[in-house]
Amino acid sequence: MDPLREHFLGITRRHFFRDCGVGVGKIALASLLADSFPRSLLAASGSSGGDPLVPKPSPLRATAKNVIHLFMAGAPSQLDLFDHKPELAKLEGKPIPPSVIGGQRYAFIRSDAAVLGPRFKFKPAGSNGTEIATDVLPHLAGIIDEVCMIKSVHTDQFNHAPAQILFNTGFSQPGRPSMGSWATYGLGAEARDLPAFVVMSTGAGISGGAANWSSGFLPTIYAGVRFRNQGDPILDVSNPDGIDPKLQRDSLDLVGAMNRRRLDAVGDPEIATRIANYEMAYRLQTSAPELMDLRSESKATLEMYGCDPNKPSFARACLLARRMIERGVRFVNIYHEGWDAHSDVFGNHTTHCKETDQASAALVKDLKQRGLLDETLVIWGGEFGRTPMVESNAALGRSLGRDHHPTAFTVWMAGGGVKSGLVYGATDELGFHIVENPVHVHDLQATILRLLGFDHERLTFHYQGRDFRLTDVSGNVIRPLIA
3-class DSSP state for residue 275? Predict the structure, then answer.
């Protein structure tokens, strides 16, 4: 017999209802007070007493317990923000040498397009003199000694949706579990009144959509839960007029009893997920308003983030992410869209740096001053980079922009056991090719899992006849990044 089915057909709550004479409402209330009502039903992982979200020890020594991933959807230009190439300024307006291109093709520019120099001035920052565009990243300059800058990341994908999905799930097509799903599958979560994996967005749209935070073939209890950036974090979390707490509790008890009857009959873990989600929604009616209410934050904290607590913004999302980590949320994704600078890279990046730089740096500072940075990994970056060549197309109304460039881009990380003050990897004098310490997206994922205490080759899930993992069939831990 299937062990999951055997578990649920063995001892269920119906035995207590029948043999002990305790009503459904009373036992539900007692279970809620004990904070365990739905979780003993969740035998999806077959471990930890049947509770897939109970906190679990990592198999290896972990330096990170939580992750906040600041995903800059649309792909920031590494050449204008992080990877200083003075040679581009010297060659601006001249065709890039054919030997550099090597036969590569691009979506919107010709292979003989002219070189575009950096749009911002670079200056050294921090004790190591790391060069960044300090005019638009002044706050990052202030925390640069906490940052591990990786200038040699590369990917297999050159269009937004597949590149975003690859970065987040290890595969370029929808259907695989995301990093947040793998983290909660492996570690569980300490949060009992909030989801283990939360997603927020602060822009115009995400090309890869919900595939970026999907649980794929893992049980959907591990999927990311998207929070809105204003109002109720989840639609309909507040009761409509005329629904009082008793009526709601009675309704949930009835629905729960019917779902458990079906669960007993078929042993489907997705039914257990459904029961858990009903109860989580019930608890969110109390926990979510408290989480989203920033009035308890000091004026100094709000000013540090640049956050107006009454307006949706990237800053507000970053502050909420810190509050979620404090409350036991395992993985937080914040997507800030709009970096796709096919035209006017100067104007585009000026705007988006103004929206993100202060809050990104404040998040790192805030975590550190609260003693949370050592165990919280912060990741900042997009799905690929931008070309050294200019994109100008009068028919499309484009000028002084940059096309997609998967061959080399920059990601920075802080906290969670990464080596602070490190600049890792290098590109050639035009920023086109990696010449030192290449880091594939799968290598980055393997390293993130290692910081969380996992061997990326052994954190697997058996599906359709074989074991799957986040890093697909490749990936190596980048040991020099780990402190």
Answer: helix
Sketch out the chain's domains with CATH numbers.
55-243+294-481 (3.40.720.10)
- DSSP code per residue over 120-139: S--EEETTTTEEE-TTT-HH
**Phi and psi, residue 52, nearest 5°:** -75, -15
Q: Which amino acid is at 216?
A: G
Q: Extract the residue ranges of the chain whose pLDDT is less than 70.
A: 1-51, 107, 111, 230-231, 234-245, 247-248, 276-288
382's CB contacts (< 8 A; 6+ apart) are 71, 72, 73, 74, 75, 76, 339, 409
Residue 295 CB burial class (10 angstroms; 0-12, 13-18, ≥19): exposed
Name 262's Cβ contacts closer than 8 Å, sequence gap at least 6. 268, 271
Instruction: Read off the pLDDT of residues 416-450 as tens digits, 9 standing for 90 and up.
Output: 999 999 999 999 999 999 999 999 999 999 999 99
Distances (CA, A) of 293 to 230, 311, 483: 11, 12, 36
In contact, 164 and 214? CB cutoff 8 Å: no
Pick the closest to residue 309 from 326, 286, 288, 293 (CA basis).
293
* Rounded-to-integer distance, Cα 294 and Cα 304, Å: 14
Q: What is the pLDDT of residues 112-143, one digit of tens each?
A: 789 999 999 999 999 999 999 999 999 999 99
pLDDT for 5:
41
Would you state the pLDDT for residue 280?
Answer: 64
DSSP codes joined into one string, 372-395: -GGGEEEEEE-SSEEEEEEEEEGG
Residues 6+ apart with CB under 8 A from 11: none
